[in-house]
Amino acid sequence: MRDLINNQLEATKIVDSGVLKVAASDRYSMIIKDDNTLWATGDNDKRFGNGNEDDYRIFTKIRDDVEAVSCSFSHTSIITTSGDLLTCGYNTEGQLGDSTNTHSSSWVNVTTTKDVISVSNGDNFTIFLTSDNDLYGFGNNGSGQLGQDNITDTNHPVFIKSNVESISAGDSSYGQSGSSTGYNKLPKLIFSDIKIISAGDRYSMIIKNDNTLWAAGSDSNHKQGDGDNSNSAHYSFYQVTN
């Protein structure tokens, strides 16, 4: 509900209980409940994996065996309780990772040699971690986001890097990778001592091990919370709060 006097939004309870994880993107949201069921609401557009494009106005159960979910404008990725990686949605640039470029409103299986423990969708690309902490990716590579030292798209998983602990996907058109040199076609050390990282629309934020908050990328609409009214882009990570 909107507070018209203070121009603020008030939180409204949507689901009574049992929500364990949440993911959202353009025009739709998904949650995983504590019984590993996946629920969705909003604009389907092939992204719910239920074989149709029916939209939902309330959270509706999609399937029973989901451990993790990542949403994006073009597609959805999930990890099942058995460690399988499944995707659905648009596949123009191979972002479903099933070795085709065919769109699918039903879940398709991504072939992996190990169990998948983490997944993150970017702009028409997907990256994921396996149980041995190897990083793989597929889909759009026009800015080198798959770390292959080229800009060639791929519709199947390619190895990127080993010994990876956490992932988040985006692009670097506004410096949100925190590298002042722009696009990187190979993995590059940007920052150390990181506890949590999250990539948004044209910006990134990290929490360091000392619990300080840092940001890089576009600051339009004041989304970095630094009090700067210039709406400028930051091409290196800077500290937002203590």
Any descriptors?
242 residues; mainly beta; globular; 4-stranded antiparallel β-sheet
Question: Mind explaining what this structure looks like?
Answer:
It is built from no helices and 18 strands. β12 and β13 form a beta hairpin. It has strands spanning 2-3, 8-9, 19-25, 28-33, 38-42, 56-63, 66-71, 75-80, 85-89, 104-110, 116-121, 125-130, 135-139, 154-161, 194-199, 203-208, 213-218, 233-241. With 242 residues, it is mostly beta strands. It has 2 domains: 2-169, Regulator of chromosome condensation 1/beta-lactamase-inhibitor protein II (Methylamine Dehydrogenase, Chain H, 7 Propeller); 175-242, no CATH class. The strands form 5 sheets. It has a 4-stranded antiparallel sheet with strand order 3-4-5-6, with no helix packed on it. The protein has a 4-stranded antiparallel sheet with strand order 7-8-9-10, with no helix packed on it. A 4-stranded antiparallel sheet has the order 11-12-13-14, with no helix packed on it.
Q: What's the overall geometry? A: globular
Question: At CATH's second level, what is the architecture of the largest domain?
Answer: 7 Propeller
Low-confidence stretches: 174-181
Class from helix and strand fractions:
mainly beta
Mean pLDDT: 82
Tally of distinct domains: 2
Number of DSSP helical runs = 0
SSE topology string: EEEEEEEEEEEEEEEEEE
Fourth CATH level, the homologous superfamily of the largest domain: Regulator of chromosome condensation 1/beta-lactamase-inhibitor protein II
- Beginning-to-end CA distance, first to last residue: 31 Å
Number of extended strands: 18
CATH class of the largest domain: Mainly Beta
Q: Summarize the biggest pleated sheet.
A: 4 strands, antiparallel
CATH topology type of the largest domain: Methylamine Dehydrogenase, Chain H
Percent in helix: under 10%
* Rg from Cα: 18 Å
* Spatial strand sequence of the major β-sheet: 3-4-5-6
State which percent range the strand residues make up. Answer: 35-45%
